[in-house]
């Protein structure tokens, strides 16, 4: 049984192992940073930082930020003209910013990492390139906020450091605002992962408090939970830190279950793909570490898969033609049951990721939401790239005909493949994860994700997967072939807003391990 003690032990174990893994790069701060009776410490133009409430709330330890010089913060600027070798800026070097030749038209993107990470990682590079490749982004500037020296253990010190890095970044953006002669920061989009999400919030807060400027958008990619859950908004990222704040939760579960992401809905729009806690493909048997990785790298890969998935989803959303649609619903369980499949005033539909703000602004313009509205949305994705799937509500009716009743109930799984007008096939999906007991007259409704073929389905290929279990007499078929009599199957698409009902030809049963094509024209009531 897990408890708070085991949770703390797990966190300490992970931190120690990560500390060992990164020992050659760890910045060793002076001892007096960690044992100090001061309640406030000031760092020149960047302001003063308190250790009093609310910075003590839900935190087992509390630190001051390390001095700016020891953090080694670098701002690497990329444009379409310099994709490989960045221009390096510093927060307090206004002359270099003036000579940077940054296009004032924008848009401007900032990307930052979290604990034990850095701006040199491949996911950061992939995201930066995807943003620069967006059609119409010829004048775009991508700035990587790299604070890797300050992101090292202990975790509490890294938590404190992002307060100062956020303030430093706000000063840099203010200088940029003045040098480029901008009228606002509406065209600025700050994207932060884990601790970096809260760093973005501190930047947004400082811009408002010190310079009366407001970021256009902050995207929080699985914002960190430890030290930030159940705290006041001043301590963490919240919807007031920018004009639009969207959150992708991918690892929102307790720390003692290897969860690092915050579960609270803290943005204008919060997305919970696959429920927001664990992601498909991230189980230990499915998410393999790179060949030759040592124990520490393997551990890091295991605990980071769900947490980093938010970055992968956001990057894919930038360039994918797949819509990445998510639907407003009461809960993920309600969504899976197929109770939120229409895009209307009760269930808003917003694409997760890069294009969410465009849709949100439409809702604002139509008066469907206001600035005080909060929207929580759910979706399903795949376990590997490409992650985006399209959602179908499948309603299955087991026939109650004489033949079906004579055959009797059966235990198995139903596999479905969707076929569009071009005869392109989706991947095959099981309606249920495990074998199910189907009785004549049963009706089952489920939400199932499929690979997008580009068009809605016109027919369906169905298979009955039957597995005999020696210890379960319900699975024994001694005289009759394993099969199921399906009366009809209704396929409702969220993305394409279409409905079709298909049936087996001549009301024949779906026999185990034989493909059965079901079409609308086979339905007697079509």
From TrEMBL:
<feature type="binding site">
    <location>
        <position position="241"/>
    </location>
    <ligand>
        <name>Ca(2+)</name>
    </ligand>
</feature>
<feature type="active site" description="Charge relay system">
    <location>
        <position position="307"/>
    </location>
</feature>
<comment type="similarity">
    <text>Belongs to the AB hydrolase superfamily. Lipase family.</text>
</comment>
<dbReference type="GO" id="GO:0004806">
    <property type="term" value="F:triacylglycerol lipase activity"/>
</dbReference>
<dbReference type="GO" id="GO:0046872">
    <property type="term" value="F:metal ion binding"/>
</dbReference>
<dbReference type="GO" id="GO:0016042">
    <property type="term" value="P:lipid catabolic process"/>
</dbReference>
<keyword id="KW-0479">Metal-binding</keyword>
<dbReference type="Pfam" id="PF00151">
    <property type="entry name" value="Lipase"/>
</dbReference>
<feature type="active site" description="Charge relay system">
    <location>
        <position position="222"/>
    </location>
</feature>
<feature type="active site" description="Nucleophile">
    <location>
        <position position="194"/>
    </location>
</feature>
<feature type="binding site">
    <location>
        <position position="236"/>
    </location>
    <ligand>
        <name>Ca(2+)</name>
    </ligand>
</feature>
<keyword id="KW-1015">Disulfide bond</keyword>
<dbReference type="InterPro" id="IPR033906">
    <property type="entry name" value="Lipase_N"/>
</dbReference>
<dbReference type="InterPro" id="IPR016272">
    <property type="entry name" value="Lipase_LIPH"/>
</dbReference>
<dbReference type="InterPro" id="IPR013818">
    <property type="entry name" value="Lipase"/>
</dbReference>
<dbReference type="InterPro" id="IPR000734">
    <property type="entry name" value="TAG_lipase"/>
</dbReference>
<dbReference type="InterPro" id="IPR002331">
    <property type="entry name" value="Lipase_panc"/>
</dbReference>
<dbReference type="InterPro" id="IPR029058">
    <property type="entry name" value="AB_hydrolase_fold"/>
</dbReference>
<protein>
    <submittedName>
        <fullName>Pancreatic lipase-related protein 2</fullName>
    </submittedName>
</protein>
<keyword id="KW-0964">Secreted</keyword>
<dbReference type="GO" id="GO:0005615">
    <property type="term" value="C:extracellular space"/>
</dbReference>
<feature type="domain" description="Lipase">
    <location>
        <begin position="40"/>
        <end position="360"/>
    </location>
</feature>
<feature type="binding site">
    <location>
        <position position="238"/>
    </location>
    <ligand>
        <name>Ca(2+)</name>
    </ligand>
</feature>
<keyword id="KW-0106">Calcium</keyword>
């Amino acid at each position: 049984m897990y408890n708070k003690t085991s949770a703390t032990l797990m966190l300490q174990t992970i931190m120690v192992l990560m500390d060992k893994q990164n020992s050659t790069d760890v910045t060793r701060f002076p001892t007096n940073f960690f044992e100090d009776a001061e309640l406030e410490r000031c760092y020149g133009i960047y302001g003063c930082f308190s250790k009093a409430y609310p910075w003590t709330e839900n935190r087992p330890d509390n630190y001051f930020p390390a001095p700016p010089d020891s953090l080694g913060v670098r701002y690497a600027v990329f444009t379409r003209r310099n994709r490989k070798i960045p221009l390096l800026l510093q927060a307090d070097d206004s002359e270099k910013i003036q000579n940077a030749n940054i296009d004032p038209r924008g848009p401007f993107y900032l990307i930052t990492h979290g604990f034990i990470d850095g701006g040199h990682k491949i996911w950061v590079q992939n995201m930066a390139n995807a943003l620069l490749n967006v059609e119409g982004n010829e004048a775009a500037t991508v700035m990587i906020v790299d604070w890797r020296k300050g992101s090292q253990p202990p975790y509490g010190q890294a938590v404190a450091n992002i307060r100062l890095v956020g303030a430093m970044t706000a000063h840099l953006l203010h200088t940029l605002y003045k040098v480029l002669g901008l009228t606002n920061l509406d065209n600025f989009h700050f994207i932060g992962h884990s601790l970096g999400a809260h760093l973005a919030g501190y930047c947004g807060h400082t811009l408002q408090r010190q310079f009366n400027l407001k970021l256009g958008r902050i995207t929080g990619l699985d914002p960190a939970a430890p030290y930030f859950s159940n705290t006041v908004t001043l301590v963490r990222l919240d919807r007031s830190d920018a004009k639009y704040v969207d959150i992708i939760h991918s690892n929102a579960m307790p720390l003692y279950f290897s969860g690092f992401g915050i579960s609270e809905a803290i943005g204008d729009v919060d997305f919970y793909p696959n429920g927001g806690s664990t992601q498909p493909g991230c189980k230990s048997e499915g998410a393999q570490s790179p060949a030759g990785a040592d124990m520490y790298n393997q551990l890091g890969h295991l605990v980071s898969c769900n947490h980093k998935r938010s970055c992968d989803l956001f990057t894919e959303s930038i360039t994918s033609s797949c819509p990445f649609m998510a639907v407003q619903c009461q809960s993920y369980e309600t969504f899976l049951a197929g109770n939120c499949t229409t895009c209307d005033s009760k269930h808003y539909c917003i694409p997760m990721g890069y294009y969410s703000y465009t849709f949100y602004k439409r809702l604002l313009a139509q008066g469907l939401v206001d600035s005080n509205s909060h929207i929580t949305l759910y979706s399903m994705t795949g376990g590997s790239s490409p992650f985006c799937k399209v959602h179908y509500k499948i309603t299955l009716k087991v026939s109650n005909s004489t033949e079906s009743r004579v055959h009797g109930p059966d235990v198995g799984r139903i596999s479905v493949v969707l076929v569009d007008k071009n005869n392109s096939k989706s991947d095959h999906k099981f309606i249920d994860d495990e074998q199910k007991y189907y009785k004549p007259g049963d009706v089952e409704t489920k939400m199932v994700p499929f690979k997008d073929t580009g068009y809605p389905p016109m027919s369906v290929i169905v298979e009955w997967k039957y597995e005999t279990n020696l210890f379960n007499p319900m699975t024994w078929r001694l005289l009759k072939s394993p099969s199921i009599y399906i009366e009809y199957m209704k396929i409702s698409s969220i993305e394409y807003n279409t409905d079709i009902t298909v049936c087996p030809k001549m009301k024949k049963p779906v026999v185990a391990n034989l493909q059965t094509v079901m079409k609308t024209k086979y339905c007697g009531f079509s």
